[in-house]
Structure formats: C-alpha cells, structure tokens
Design a protein that fits this description.
By secondary structure, this protein is an alpha/beta fold. The protein is built from 17 helices and 22 strands. Helices cover about 35% and strands about 20% of the residues.
Length: about 525
C-alpha cells in the first residue's frame, strides 16, 4: 500500500469529495470560497447535479423529480443567490393536484372541492364513512392506512391515499408507518377540513398552509450546479467527471487515499486528509480497503433503495396544465406523477409546446426498469390516453431517463444498519464524512443535503464539531409555512422531510425489498 505523508497542522488539508451533486459541490464551494481550501471532486457520471440535475435532450430540458427552491435555512438561501444571480431565478406559482377518475382535486385536499367532485351520493358515503370511524376507529393506527382512515374515513382513504403511496413505495399501505402520514397531513381531518373551508381567512390564524410560490432557476436546477462547478473550478478545485470511486484505503484509524477508475479501466489514486462522501453509504462501505468489519459490511448489504424512471413526452401546448405536477391516483395506469416542465419554467420548453414528464417508481432491475426506451415511450403514450390527458398521436417526441437510488428505502432495519456503518467509520476512518441524501441514507430535500455539507466543511476548516446526524428532518411537512416560521440554529434544526419506515416481513425472498444489495 502506498504511503502518503500526513498534512502538517499548519498546512491546508487535502480533501477528496465523492460526488458532484448538491452535497458534494456545496462542500467544495464552502471549503474553497469560505475557507480557502481547494479539493478534488470525483463524479462517476458525465453530468453534475445528481438527482438535482437538469437533463437536456434535443433542446428540451427536464427536471428529475421536481425541485422547488424553497428553504427554511437562511444559509442555504444565501448560497443559492450567491451562486446564481437574481436574474437567473424565476418566482413560480406552486400548484399540484390529484387526478382521480377524470377529475382534478386540490392538493392538499379541500373538503368542499373533494366532496363536490365526488358527487352527492359518493360525498354522502364518504361523510358516513367518516362518521363510522369516529364511532368505530381503526384498531391499528400505527400504520398509514389506519392513521388516515381514522381522520378521513375508509372511503376517502381509498380514493386519495392508498393507490399513490403503494405506487411510490412498492408495498401495501398497511406496512407504511403513521408518522409518515402525520408529517404530510399533520393534524388535518375531514372535520377540520370542512371547518377550515367555512371559516373566513382572517379567522384562520392558527392554520398553516403550503407555500404558494417558490424560486426556480430559469433553465432548471442543473443550472445551479453547473454554475457551482464552474465557480469551484475557478477557485482552484478539480472536478473530474466519468470517474467512479472503487476504493478508499485506510490504515491505523484514518483514510489515506481514494482510488478511482476512469474510462478504459485506468485507475488513479488520490491522497487525502479528509474524504467527504455523497455516494450511497452502502457503496462507500463496499469500497473500504481493507474491508470493513463484518457487522458493518452486512449492514451495508442490507440497505435498499427505490429507483426512478422519467418518460418525457413532447406535446402541443393545448395539452398543458397549470400544475407543476399532478399525482395520478388511478390503478389503471402505472405512472405515479406527471410533471409539466412548462409550468416549472417556460425557458425549459419550446414555443407552442410543452414537455410532460411521466414518473414511474421502480426497483432497479425490475420489469419496468429493464424495458427498452421505445417500450417505455409507448407505455407513456398509452397511459396518457387512458387518463384522457393527451391524444397519443399528438406526441411529437419521447425521452427516457433512469435514475438509480433516487430514494433511500426505509425499512424496519435501516436505522440499525446505518448506525452500524457510522459506528465503524467513526472507529476506523473518522476522516471520512458522509453527507447528503444517499451519503447518509436519508430521504431529504436538496437544501437538507446542502446543509449537511456546509456543516461538514466548517468542521474540517475550523475544527468545529457539528453533528450532521443531528440535522433532523422536521415533524411538519417541509413546504408548510406559517407566520412564525424561523430558520433553525446552525447544526440543530430540521430542513427537510422524512420517508416512511417500511416492514419487510410480509414479503417473499424474491421481492426486491428482500433481495441482497448489489451496491
């Protein structure tokens, strides 16, 4: 094993950053611009931004998953406007609805709108279903199913909550925990929804609401990270693309170097005093050389991910809709959500047309993931026709983007697994610092990922001891706002959202949830 001389205390530390997504590039920027520490950023892909990239095909731009630039953390908002000038941001209206049986329902649900769309007969059935659960509440309210049914009744639960969540996570809703629902729906019930819809707005002082508008780079979120890459390179950092990390050499309680593989299989070794890693923490453990202890290795192998496919279809502007996205609550189709990229920014589409992004939540390697692009585009056209949204013959072009490891999968073992990995890193390689969504196996937003990187950069540069693992997600929904919202103290506050903890005990060995990780 090659030996590298440790940096002296009066020398600038040698930092290697794995990943050029929001967390990795934020760390590089903070170190270089705030503290004068340059770094080497290694990115396996040909595009920066990770899941927050903007994909460009034939002049069309589309976001992967939709990224509203909204945050309760001042440092993050300051960062955005430091990297991009104000003229590159647009203030966009926030709108999303549920599409169910040919009708649009406001999201979050509004009692008057929902009951009107359902019709008098079904509305009465929903009200009676709600009355019934007040008399005979579900026995088990620890699950998403029981928690929502107790507050809305079984019929509204079936209409508006069951199908989408099962599409998103690939498991039945009676295996999703109640805290997942509570975070998004908070204390809302059908009764409260009716009362709130009847009260004058001036009397609703205690009711929080979703933000009504958000910032958005005019060419998509990738614009932010492409600019950030340029700035860190101008500050002396190296951002090396198409370079996959395959090893992290460590010895005597310290990581010494990072080994990366470039095109044609050539390898290069980068000495380091610190490693900031936003690569999936399961892959990070696999890369450790010598290998990590068995409990940590087994924990890494047991972590799971939910993956993502976007089918982007170009259609005439007449098929546009005002929403940023619509949630598809229909069992007749597989698509779970449909973006309208023209509603995000008119600069992302071409005159007279828009681009619709059909989102499919999958497991990498399953039937949908393995379909050809042509088959996925054909499926997208077919499902738009089933939903009555677009005449398939009017679709002018189609593009497919596959995004592995889009969502860390929260099963009942993940907390213990992550804890074992972190414990091993702290004992054997404490100068390796996981950050970001996949780096920490936390289902967080872009701003949360950035904030963990900011704290890590300060720890390295100033010797502070911020615990990035204590940067918790909030109990209330990330995009709820109220008059007394304040930014959390540095290193202590929540910035994002949580994901459900999903039980694996009800699935067979062949289900993707229970397959050994290939990462």
């Amino acid at each position: 094993m090659p030996e590298f001389t440790d940096s002296q205390t009066d020398q600038t530390p040698n930092v290697v950053i794995i990943g050029a997504g929001p967390a990795g590039l934020t760390a590089a920027y903070e170190l270089a611009v705030r503290y004068g520490i340059t770094s080497t950023v290694l990115e396996s892909d040909s595009v920066v931004g990770g899941i927050s990239r903007t994909v460009e095909r034939d002049g069309w731009r589309f976001d992967i998953g939709g990224h509203r630039f909204f945050t309760k953390v001042k440092e993050v908002d300051d960062f955005w406007h430091e990297v991009l000038p104000d003229e590159d941001f647009m203030l966009r209206p926030r709108m999303s609805r549920i599409y169910y049986e040919g009708k649009y329902y406001d999201y979050p649900l509004k009692a008057s709108n929902a009951l009107k769309n359902l019709g008098i007969v079904e509305a009465l059935r929903c009200v009676m279903s709600y009355v019934w659960v007040r008399i005979r509440p579900p026995k088990d309210q620890t699950t998403l199913e029981g928690w929502i049914a107790a507050r809305f009744g079984w019929r509204l639960y079936t209409h508006f909550f069951k199908t989408y969540n099962e599409k998103l996570w690939g498991v039945p809703t009676n295996n999703l925990p109640a805290d997942f629902a509570a975070q998004r729906i908070k204390n809302l019930s059908l009764f409260n929804a009716v009362v709130n819809s009847l009260l004058p707005r001036r009397n609703q002082k205690d009711i929080t609401s979703l933000i009504e508008e958000f910032q958005y780079p005019k060419l998509g979120p990738g614009m932010m990270w492409e600019r950030c890459r340029d700035l860190v390179e101008a500050a002396g950092c190296k951002v090396i693309m198409n370079t996959r990390v395959v090893g992290v050499r460590h010895h005597d309680g310290k990581a010494l170097s990072v080994i990366a593989e470039r095109a044609l299989g050539t390898r290069e070794e980068f000495p380091c005093d610190h490693v900031i890693s936003s690569m999936p923490i399961s892959q990070l453990l696999k890369a450790m050389d010598p290998p990590a202890a068995e409990p940590a290795t087994l924990a890494a192998q047991d972590l799971r991910y939910r993956d993502f496919v976007t089918v982007a279809l170009v259609v005439p502007l007449e098929y546009s809709f005002p929403d940023n996205w619509i949630y598809v609550h229909s069992k007749e189709v597989q698509v779970g959500r449909i973006q309208n990229f023209g509603s995000w920014s008119p600069h992302m589409v071409k005159e007279g047309r828009t681009c619709l992004g059909l989102e499919f939540f999958v497991f990498e390697g399953d039937e949908t993931w393995n379909k050809s692009d042509a088959d996925l585009i054909a499926q997208g056209k077919r499902e738009l026709a089933i939903l009555g949204l677009v005449d398939p013959s009017k679709v002018e072009a189609g593009y497919v983007v596959r995004m592995p490891k889009a969502y860390p999968f929260y099963d009942e073992h993940y907390k213990a697994n992550v804890a074992r990995i972190v414990e091993w890193l702290e004992d054997c390689a404490p100068n390796v610092h996981p950050v970001g969504r996949n780096g920490m196996h936390r289902y967080n937003n872009q701003d949360h990922s950035m904030y963990t990187a900011m704290l890590t950069a300060e720890n390295i540069a100033r010797g502070t001891h911020h615990d990035v693992w204590s940067v918790n997600v909030e109990e209330e929904y990330h995009e709820q706002s109220s008059e007394d919202d304040t930014a959390p103290p540095r290193g202590t506050g929540g910035t994002g959202r949580d994901a459900p903890v999903i039980s694996r005990r009800h699935y067979g060995e062949d289900h993707p949830v229970n397959r050994p990780s290939t990462s």
